[in-house]
């Protein structure tokens, strides 16, 4: 249907939806009065049971680790889909395109500020990743922070280093390793006679870096996988622009 | 529900509408990045620091980065196609 | 009739959903519609945040507070973390499809890409 008709129909039904949504929101429990009980139980128990002070990460990587396994496989499958959609066949003939020249040269400020920024970002990424069970953070956030480092290199026009880092087959291996070792940790607890994905490593002292058993280990695996996933996606988008070859139509 | 919380949520509502109404795609990426930072601020105010960290890294860095990469790849293809058209003509 | 200020997060969540849907319906550029999908997904964050909040509660991180203090709900925050991850991933896949559609047909407008060609 034409655009005006579509917009008008949308406003009618969208208005009805919004009215009923607000009307039913009035009957929700009073705001700010969370009644529990599961959140309170976990908040009270997670420090003693798992020696992890960050209960959100304890839920994600221990109490409900199965959901996080599914989420990591969503990430894996989506990266697989992106690479399959955007890949270039090896036997397709390519033609060289004149590389798009930047009109303005890169300012020295950007280049000078990028190196300290890269050093700081790498250190910060590792810090966040290793302290997932103690403070807010964990594997996923660290993965995204570390994945932004080669893009800083790309911004400084250092495309050769960027290409060497991200197009190496090691990155694919690291992603598969991260995703696979999460599942293997779960299977290891099955081998030891406990339910899938239960915590079987020594728990350590609360507040230390090597505490809370498998939470830290799973966090590290997820960090590896997420870093490699974002690097692969970035390279899949940028491959044509960097090499300057386009397949023949 | 304090006034600061209500003010932040009002800002989120207005910014969300602004993101949708920006038609030019490159400007919308910047608006989306600002929206991500604002959502992270809301999460931080409502006592969810882990989610705020996630939202900053994903919604303000990784998501606009991926959209910009997609836009630049499409522009590169269009420019290459025009180049080829010029050379053949 | 509860205080209107206390219903504000739910109204904001409904409004964000409505805005995102409006952007999707009236979009003329596929990348614009993908970003409106991101706004749509963020409406669920405010809804979950509003459900799990407790007035006067602290953040559920016990690094410096004793593990007995009143906190907000940590389970809902774990759900929101998963939600944020899935948003990034879905947008990446959708953008790959948009790039591919642009390669094959040359346009990015959803109105012109209507007919499926085998």
Short description:
The complex is a heterotrimer of chains A (249), B (89) and C (118). Chain A has 249 residues and is mainly α. Chain A has 10 helices and 2 strands.
Features:
heterotrimer, B: 89 residues, mainly alpha, 90% helix, elongated, C: 118 residues, 3 helices, 0% strand
Q: Tell me the series of helices and strands of chain C, N- to C-terminal.
A: HHH
Low-confidence stretches of chain B: none
Helical content band of chain B: over 70%
In terms of structural class, how would the helical and strand content of chain B be classed? mainly alpha
Determine the most extensive contact between two protein chains.
Answer: A-C, 52 and 50 residues
What summary fits the major beta sheet of chain B? none
Q: What characterizes the major β-sheet of chain C?
A: none
Number of helices of chain C: 3
Terminus-to-terminus distance of chain C: 57 Å
- The fraction of residues in strands of chain C falls at under 5%
Number of domains of chain B: 1
How many DSSP helices of chain B?
Answer: 3
Q: What order do the helices and strands of chain B follow?
A: HHH
Task: State the separation between the terminal residues of chain B, measured CA to CA.
Answer: 67 Å
The gross shape of chain C turns out to be elongated
Number of strands of chain C: 0
Oligomer: heterotrimer
Structure description:
- The complex is a heterotrimer of chains A (249), B (89) and C (118).
- Chain A has one domain.
- Helices cover 67% and strands 2% of the residues of chain A.
- With 249 residues, chain A is mainly α.
- In chain A, helix 3 (55-63) packs across helix 4 (65-86), helix 6 packs parallel to helix 10 and helix 9 (169-191) runs antiparallel to helix 10 (214-243).
- A two-stranded antiparallel sheet of chain A has the order 1-2.
- The longest helix of chain A is centred in the C-terminal third of the chain and has 30 residues, at 214-243.
- Chain B has one domain.
- Chain B has helices at 3-21, 25-45, 49-88.
- Chain B is elongated.
- In chain B, helix 1 runs antiparallel to helix 2 (25-45) and helix 2 (25-45) runs antiparallel to helix 3.
- By secondary structure, chain B is mainly alpha-helical.
- The mean pLDDT of chain B is 90.
- With 118 residues, chain C is an all-alpha fold.
- Chain C has one domain.
- Helix content of chain C is 62%, strand content 0%.
- The longest helix of chain C has 32 residues, at 74-105.
- The radius of gyration of chain C is 20 Å and the shape is elongated.
- Classes of the chains: A mainly alpha (249), B mainly alpha (89), C mainly alpha (118).
